[in-house]
Structures are given as structure tokens and as C-alpha cells.
Specification:
GO biological process, one term: carbohydrate metabolic process
Number of domains: 4
Structural class: mainly beta
Strand content: 25-35%
Strand order of the largest sheet: 1-8-9-10-11-5-6-7
Family: Belongs to the glycosyl hydrolase 35 family.
Bound molecules: 2-acetamido-2-deoxy-beta-D-glucopyranose
Number of strands: 42
CATH superfamily of the largest domain: Glycosidases
Pfam families: BetaGal_gal-bd, GHD, Glyco_hydro_35, SUEL_Lectin
Oligomer: single chain
InterPro entries: BetaGal_gal-bd, Galactose-bd-like_sf, GH, GHD, Gly_Hdrlase_35_cat, Glycoside_Hdrlase_35, Lectin_gal-bd_dom, Lectin_gal-bd_sf
CATH class of the largest domain: Alpha Beta
Largest sheet: 8 strands, mixed
Shape: globular
Protein name: beta-galactosidase
Length: 806
């Protein structure tokens, strides 16, 4: 089941298009209905989102290079306010927050950049990119006509909820940015009423049917959702290469000229940057580049071929005149002509029926839910449903630098929980209030906030008795409960945003009884109207003691207006246990299944250049650090439901991706994430020891933890006659075996290919000769290459290959 009930990735609003030239000189960016123009020259913009804080600075050159090789000419990113100004007036542009270095890296590849300046950003990013201190400024009302709050972004979908003030504010924003005269166009996503000259643009899985609100605007697709994000307790979403290519080809068929993949590289929500709440640490997004920066094949390669075809037609697509003819049954032909040149698209949006289209005297078979592109309105050069790119099967490989991969030696320390002392006192209190506070008041410097109170009970008190319960209602996150110095229970919100009530029987004592609530957030909300005002923590409560009376009537004492004391964060966080070497850690009696424990171990970095991951199986919930860098939160015990995945190995790409395409999900019935990215930039080189520290909140066993690398072990293809196939291994690996190779009639899929009745008998020998011992190899797929197949004319000739890399 799809779990995010909140609207998908919402919205957008103002975004500046900032184009960097190859030289240091700026260029002028203008537009009309057909395209953007850079210094007067029409351009197709094929862009992809890569968010700089979701990778490390040393990964940027490779990611951007792979994006360029993948056929993009532009990289898009948000600007993340809360990473740059975590505390009021304290700025940070170091490490992976160095946006200028990121933009320079883009320029070094001779690519353009689109900058979405925010300040609000949706992006499954903590609190929509707003620093929490902003919310706590006196008199502020966010995202509306309010003097303290300034500028806006991604507003279209939520504006209505702000009434007239919302509209006034929208116009104020538009005027503000226009008055800056910076020489580049401004755009607002999903803002159908954007005021001139701010271009409204579309976000979605498909944007072919969306049109700008002014005939003089180009058609821009700012967020083409290349996949989807993961949340704790959910399975892994998958969007097929065929469907994504279909959406892109349709968009360019129907007047599109600027398109951006959201995401091209999703990356990782390091530290506590994930929003949601309950957005997972991996932000892989099933994007063309995977979380670690590997090619996600066949998506990357299939789209690359499409981009090459589109770019080869740039002149006609950006200048030409379009004429579309409806063939019925959702089949649409579009002819685009310019100065005697011609490009044609045959689109079949029927989700189940292949189409035979007669076009200029030729018959074309256009598979269901696909687009065929004809280079000169005659030769088919691409069909979105025919994937010629390799399918890579990623596998983890054990750490060759460790002699005993499962023999990590652990030491540990218990978290020093803050409970009342004998006299009822607590240390480190930052606030006393006669109310239950929303956790946001603490400015989000830690996931954890303590709430303390105490109750005096006398013999005559109506709640004094044996059958007394403590009930606490919390919102959005995790709660641990302590009574009279003892842990009595935990509970958490199901999806992250819902309320939950924890009820536990307690043993009252005469005199003082102490109550401690330890509330933990798992990312703050990042979307929907007034998301910044949603309750977090034990806020409204109530917190009450209830005794069940003799006649089963309940006697209740509401503690919500008691005096409450507040303390932020864990003791281990304050002592920086994730990055210090002076304190004592224990090596004996390693505890397992114990709450609130810190674990530490050392390991050697795996050799080579393949991405490094750590397997956190066996643990509960918490946060992990390597050499002081946070890898993010982990949550191994929140299991996704069994029934959200398809039974079959392949998922049908046909039909609208959203909603019913839940069948494409993977990894149901297990933890949402098993492998956590350890960027090589966090590791010490050579033979030096690296340190892994875990804070385990729920209880688990670290003995299963191990480090691995992620690489391509199997490369498969099922490519079409007339196409071109390139097979590659990753890093330093080469092809060492060919398990299957046949050109002719072939069926099945990777790992399960079968020969049909006819085919070229030399295929295996030719593939072996070409590929074995090489990092990559390529073929023109035809009888010229593999020899005669003796297949009848009505058989689709395909090359099926399964190769092994090592
Ligand atoms: C949170 O930030 C606000 C605004 O900067 C500040 O006034 C307030 O004192 C901070 N609260 C805490 C608990 O640090
Ligand atoms: C009394 O409280 C108990 C424990 O919360 C609850 O299960 C029960 O429904 C309550 N009874 C009444 C009559 O409200
Ligand atoms: C594929 O064919 C093209 C032209 O037909 C040729 O230039 C190219 O070298 C061939 N590639 C391979 C790998 O055979
Ligand atoms: C999920 C979503 O927002 N889909 C949208 C994608 O774009 C099309 C066309 O603009 C909309 O109709 C969909 O609602």
C-alpha cells in the first residue's frame, strides 16, 4: 500500500533559472512560447536534479560527469536554507554545503544550472528547508503575507488555504523578484495563476497535458518524478525505464522544451536532514543514478539514448511548427517541420493495446504506452518501450580489507538517561512551564526532548489505589515513558504524523511520584498547508493518571497543566560520543536487546573505488556515525507490509505510474532499508582504522553489522534488432563469464532467458570473444554481427545476454 497520504511531492513556486556559461561571462536568458533562448539561441533543456547536501563534495564531479554522459545539459538543485543557517546568523558553507563549489563543478562540465532558491523547499527535506529557529521568531507567520517572513517557493498547491493573504503574498513575491532585474526568467511551479512574466510550470509523473497560462511562455516541466522516495515502514518504489521514457517523449512531442528529472541522483539524507516525518535515510528515488552514484541500469542507458535522439533534433523541436493528428484509441501522430526538415512522433497512450499505425505509406507497430520517434518522419530511431540498455544487477561484496568481516570487535556505553534524582531534581533544564510544549520550541538541535513532572499522592487522593494507569498522547514520532525512575514502555506513531496513546499500569507510591517522557522526532513535516504549525511531541497531551473505580467508573487526574520541566538532547550527544576518544568504553558483556546503548567498533576501508555500505541488520532504531560523520537515522524494526509488492519478477510498465503501480514496489515484508551509504569521503585511506558509532534507541544486536561494497555482478540485456548494445562492468571489474547469449527468438528476463525456435548459433562464441576480459563491450544488433537466424519475418529478433562481472 502507498502510505504517504499527504499529496505527493507537492508544489513549487519561485525558482530562478541561473545559467552559467563556459566562460566567466554571463549570458542573457530569454524565452518565448517555443523555448528558452540563451544569447538568442534556442535550446532544449534536459536537466536533472542533484541535491548537493545529499552527497559528498568528492562525489560531485563523478555524479555530474555521469549526468552529462547520460545526455543532460543542465543540473538543477534547491538551495537548502537550514543547512546553511542552522542557528540564527551562523552560516555554514563548508564540505557538502559548499554550493559555490557545486555550481563550479557543473560549469567545469560545461553544463547549465537551474537554481531553486526556496526558501521553502519540499523535497522530503526536514521542515521544508526552513531552519527551526525561524518558526520560533516572535510574530512570524510562515508562508503568507507577514512582515517577518519574506520570500516564498512551491506555493501553488497550498495558496488557497491561506485565502486572500495568500494571493496578495504571491503578487508581492512576483513583484519583488521582477524588480531585481537579474536578466534571467523566473518560474513558478504548479502556479497556474502566476503573474506575467513569471512562467508557470508543471510537476508530476506526466506533464504532456499541462500547458502554461500564457501563450508566450515555453512549456516547462520542472519536476519529472523519475521514481519515488522511501519512508520508514514502506517497501521500495520502482518506476520503470519504459514508463519514464514514455513520459519524457510525450512531453517533447506535445510542445515541451524544458524538462527536469526529479531526481537524477537522489542520494542520502545524512544526519537528521530527512523530512516527512518518517522519510528514510536512503533517498535513492529509483533515479537514473542510484543512491551511491552508480548507473541505475537500464534506466540511465535507456534515457541516454532518448536524450541523444532528442538533442539530435534540437533545431526542429525548438523552432518547428507542430501538427498533430488523432488516430483514435489514444494514438496521436505529431509532425514537426522546420525549413524543409521534419521530425515525427507516434504516441500510443493506450495502456493495454499495441497500435498499428499507417503513416506515410509505412506501417509502424507502436506498443501500448509508448512513443516512437521517426528521425526524418520516416526512419524509426527510438521507441520508449524497447529497451536496448543493459540491466545491471547490483550486489554487495564483502570487505576485502577485513580479515574477519563478521568479526568486528565492539565496545559499548549506556546512555546516561536523565531521570529525577532522589530529591526529585533534574539537571540541564532549559524551560519550566505549566503546559505541555510542542517539541519545535527546542529549535531541533536534537531528535530528543525530555519532559519531566511529578505528582504528590496521599492516602485520601481519589487516584490512590492498585489499578492506576498512566496515559500519554503524543504526535508524530517516538515516545519512551519512565515512572518513578523505571522505564515502563514505548510507543510510536504509525506513519509519522498520526497521534498515538501510550497507556501503562503504574505502581503509585505515597508522596512524590516522578514521570519522565522522552520524546523523539524522526524528521519534521515538509509539506501541506501550514505544515510548520503541525503538532510534534507530547504538546496537547493529554497526560493523565486514571484509576478504575469499584463500579468501573474512572477517576482521572489530568497532568497536562502540571509544572513541566524540559531538557533537550541525549547525554551522549552532548559528550559527542560519536567522535571522541577520551572516554571509557566497555568491551566485556556486550549488551544486546537493550535500549539506549551506544556501540562502537573500528574497521578498515574496503579496497578499490566501489561505493561502501554498512549492513545494519539486527539493530532496532537509532543513528549511525562513521569517523564523526552521521550516516543518518536507521530503523530496522519497522517492517513494510507483505502485500504491497508484485508477485511477478517484472512489473508492467503500462498505464499511469501513480496509484495502481504499487505492484512495482520491491522488498515488501522487510526493513525499509538494510544498507546505509558510507561515502568514501568519510573514510580514512589506506590501512588506518575507521570508527563506527551507533546510538541504539530500541535495542538490537550489533554482531551482524558488516561493511561491504556495492557493485555490478550481473549485466543482462534483451535488446532489439537494429539497436546498439553496450555492456559494462563497474570499477575495475571485467567480464569473466557469459551465462547466456542468443540472437533470434528469445523470451524471458534476466536470469531466466530462453531460446526460441530460431536464432544465430554463433551468438555465444561472438559475445565471449568480444566481452571476456574486458570492462565493456558493444554490438550492433543484427544478423551482420551474429550471422543468419533463419527466423521468419514475423518474429521479433532480440539479443538476450547474461554476463558475469568480477
Ligand atoms: C529558538 O530560537 C529562537 C529564535 O532564534 C530563540 O528566540 C529561542 O530562544 C530558541 N529556543 C531555544 C530553546 O534555544
Ligand atoms: C476506564 O479507563 C480504562 C483504561 O483506560 C478504559 O479501558 C475504560 O474504557 C475506561 N472506562 C470508562 C467507563 O470510561
Ligand atoms: C556499428 O555500426 C556503425 C555504423 O553502421 C559503425 O560505425 C560502428 O563501428 C559499429 N559498431 C560496432 C561495435 O560494431
Ligand atoms: C501525481 C501528480 O501530481 N500527477 C500530476 C502529473 O501531471 C499531470 C498533468 O499536469 C496532472 O494531471 C497529475 O495530477
Amino acid at each position: 500500500m502507498m502510505v504517504m497520504a499527504s499529496p505527493p511531492r507537492l508544489v513549487i513556486f519561485i525558482l530562478a533559472l541561473l545559467f552559467f556559461t563556459f566562460s566567466t561571462y554571463a549570458i542573457e536568458v530569454t524565452f518565448d512560447s517555443k523555448s528558452l533562448m540563451l544569447d538568442g539561441e534556442r535550446k532544449l533543456i534536459i536537466s536533472g536534479s542533484i541535491h548537493y547536501p545529499r552527497s559528498t563534495a568528492d562525489m560531485w564531479p563523478d555524479l555530474i560527469k555521469k549526468a552529462k554522459e547520460g545526455g543532460l545539459n543542465t543540473i538543477e538543485t534547491y538551495v537548502f536554507w537550514n543547512v546553511h543557517e542552522p542557528q540564527h546568523r551562523q552560516y555554514d558553507f563548508t564540505g557538502n554545503r559548499d554550493i559555490i563549489r557545486f555550481l563550479k563543478t557543473i560549469r567545469e562540465e560545461n553544463m547549465y544550472a537551474i537554481l531553486r532558491i526556496g526558501p521553502y523547499i519540499c523535497g522530503e527535506w526536514n521542515f521544508g528547508g526552513f531552519p527551526m529557529w525561524l518558526h520560533n521568531l516572535k510574530g512570524i507567520k510562515m508562508r503568507t503575507d507577514n512582515d517577518i517572513f519574506e520570500i516564498e517557493n512551491e506555493y501553488g498547491d497550498v495558496m488557497k488555504a491561506y485565502g486572500d493573504e495568500g494571493k496578495r503574498y504571491l503578487n508581492w513575491c512576483a513583484k519583488l523578484v521582477n524588480d531585481l532585474h537579474i536578466g534571467i526568467p523566473w518560474i513558478m511551479c504548479k502556479q497556474n495563476d502566476s503573474p506575467w512574466p513569471i512562467i508557470n510550470t508543471c510537476n508530476g509523473f506526466y506533464c504532456d497535458q499541462a500547458n502554461p497560462n500564457n501563450p508566450n511562455y515555453p512549456k516547462i516541466w520542472t519536476e519529472n518524478w523519475s521514481g519515488w522516495f522511501k519512508a520508514w515502514g514502506e517497501a521500495t518504489p520502482v518506476r520503470s525505464a519504459e514508463d519514464l521514457a514514455f513520459a519524457v517523449a510525450r512531453f517533447f512531442q506535445l510542445d515541451g522544451s524544458v524538462m527536469n528529472y526529479y531526481m537524477y541522483h537522489g542520494g542520502t539524507n545524512f544526519g537528521r536532514t530527512a523530512g516527512g516525518p518518517y522519510i528514510a535515510t536512503s533517498y535513492d528515488y529509483d533515479a537514473p543514478l542510484d543512491e551511491y552514484g552508480n548507473l541505475n541500469q537500464p534506466k540511465w542507458g535507456h534515457l541516454r539514448q532518448l536524450h541523444k535522439v532528442l538533442m539530435s533534433m534540437e533545431e526542429v523541436l525548438t523552432h518547428g511548427t507542430r501538427k498533430s493528428t488523432d488516430h483514435g484509441d489514444q494514438v496521436l501522430e505529431t509532425v514537426i517541420t522546420y525549413h524543409g526538415k521534419c521530425v515525427c512522433f507516434l504516441g500510443n497512450a493506450n495502456p493495454s493495446k499495441d497500435a498499428r499505425v499507417m503513416f506515410r505509406g509505412q506501417e509502424f507497430i507502436v506498443p501500448a504506452w509508448s512513443v516512437t520517434i521517426l528521425e526524418d518522419c520516416f526512419t524509426e530511431v527510438f521507441n520508449t518501450a524497447k529497451v536496448n540498455a543493459q540491466r545491471s544487477v547490483m550486489e554487495t561484496v564483502k570487505n576485502d580489507a577485513e580479515k574477519e568481516p563478521f568479526g568486528l570487535k565492539w565496545s559499548w556505553r549506556a546512555e546516561r538517561l536523565e531521570l529525577h534524582d532522589k530529591r526529585g531534581k533534574v539537571q540541564g533544564v532549559i524551560l519550566r512551564a505549566k503546559e505541555l510544549m510542542d517539541q519545535k520550541f527546542a529549535n531541533d538541535t536534537s531528535d530528543y526532548l525530555y519532559y519531566f513532572t511529578s505528582v504528590h499522592v496521599s492516602k485520601h487522593d481519589p487516584i490512590w489505589g492498585k489499578h492506576t494507569f498512566l496515559q500519554v498522547t503524543g504526535y508524530s514520532g517516538v515516545l519512551h515513558l519512565f515512572f518513578n525512575g523505571k522505564y515502563i514502555g514505548s510507543k510510536w506513531s504509525h506513519h509519522g504524523w498520526d497521534a498515538y496513546t501510550l497507556e501503562k499500569k503504574v505502581k503509585l507510591q505515597l508522596g512524590r511520584n516522578t514521570i519522565v517522557l522522552l520524546s523523539g522526532t524522526v524528521g519534521f513535516k515538509n509539506n501541506e498547508p501550514s505544515f510548520d504549525e503541525k503538532v510534534v511531541g507530547v504538546s496537547h497531551g493529554p497526560v493523565k493518571l486514571t484509576r478504575i473505580g469499584r463500579g468501573h467508573e474512572n477517576i482521572t487526574k489530568d497532568l497536562s497543566k502540571n509544572e513541566w520541566l524540559y531538557k533537550v538532547g541525549l547525554d551522549g550527544e552532548k559528550k559527542k560520543l560519536y567522535n571522541e576518544h577520551s572516554r571509557k568504553w566497555f568491551t566485556r558483556k556486550l549488551p544486546t536487546d537493550r535500549k539506549f546503548v551506544w556501540y562502537k567498533t573500528t574497521f578498515k576501508a574496503p579496497l578499490g573505488t566501489d561505493p561502501v555500505v554498512v549492513d545494519l541488520s539486527g539493530l532496532g532504531k537509532g543513528e549511525a556515525w562513521v569517523n564523526g560523520h552521521s550516516l543518518g537515522r536507521y530503523w530496522q524494526t519497522l517492517i513494510s507490509s507483505e502485500d504491497a509488492c508484485s508477485e511477478s519478477i517484472t512489473c508492467d510498465y503500462r498505464g499511469d505510474y501513480w496509484g495502481k503501480k504499487d505492484v512495482c514496489r520491491k522488498k515488501c515484508g522487510g526493513p525499509t532499508q538494510r544498507w546505509y551509504h558510507v561515502p568514501r569521503g568519510f573514510l580514512q585511506n589506506d590501512d588506518q582504522d575507521n570508527e563506527l558509532v551507533l546510538f541504539e534507541e530500541f535495542g538490537g544486536n550489533p554482531s551482524y553489522v558488516n561493511f561491504r561494497t556495492m557493485t555490478v555482478k550481473t549485466a543482462c540485456a534483451h535488446a532489439y534488432d537494429g539497436g546498439f548494445l553496450e555492456l559494462s562492468c563497474q570499477g575495475d571489474q571485467v567480464f569473466t563469464d557469459i551465462k547466456f547469449a542468443y540472437f533470434g527468438e528469445t523470451t524471458g528476463s534476466c536470469g531466466y532467458f530462453h531460446r526460441g525456435r530460431c536464432g544465430a548459433t554463433n551468438t555465444m562464441r561472438i559475445v565471449r570473444e568480444t566481452c571476456l576480459g574486458h570492462k565493456s563491450c558493444s554490438f550492433n544488433i543484427s544478423e551482420d554481427t551474429f550471422g543468419p537466424t533463419h527466423c521468419k519475418n514475423n518474429i521479433d529478433l532480440r539479443l538476450a545476454v547474461q554476463a558475469v562481472c568480477s
